[in-house]
Every structure is written in structure tokens, then in C-alpha cells.
Amino acid sequence: MDQTEQHAPDSSDLSYCPAPAAPAGRVAGPPYADCVECGKPTEYGVATPGVVLCPVCEWQDAQRTACSG
User: Fold this and answer.
1) 30 backbone dihedrals φ, ψ, rounded to 5°
2) How far apart are CA 20 and CA 17, in angstroms?
């Protein structure tokens, strides 16, 4: 490989564990959407797109998907 073809690593080159994703386009309530896991009210309005979880299920999901170092 020619020295002129080398490039500095950018964020797409690095391996990392991404943070849990929050629902895109959060919409304020009321009315509040129900959690898809347990059915309890969430902090998101009913018009929020994507999967919405209550605070407890969000925390448990983050614990399940967290990096183990």
C-alpha cells in the first residue's frame, strides 16, 4: 500500500458498544403511549414512532444489552 493511500481512522473504523437507542422523534404526552413490554404508561406521547418502553423496562433493556467491558 502506498503511503499516500493511508488514512486516519474515523468513528466508522472503531469498534465500540453503542448506547441504547432512544425512540427517535420523541413526542410529549398526554396521552401517553403504553409500554410494549409490560403495558404500563411510558414517558412518551402516543404519537411517538418506534418501540416505546416504560422507565423500568428501558432500564432493564439497557442492562441486558450493556457491554461487559
Assistant:
1) -80, 165
2) 9
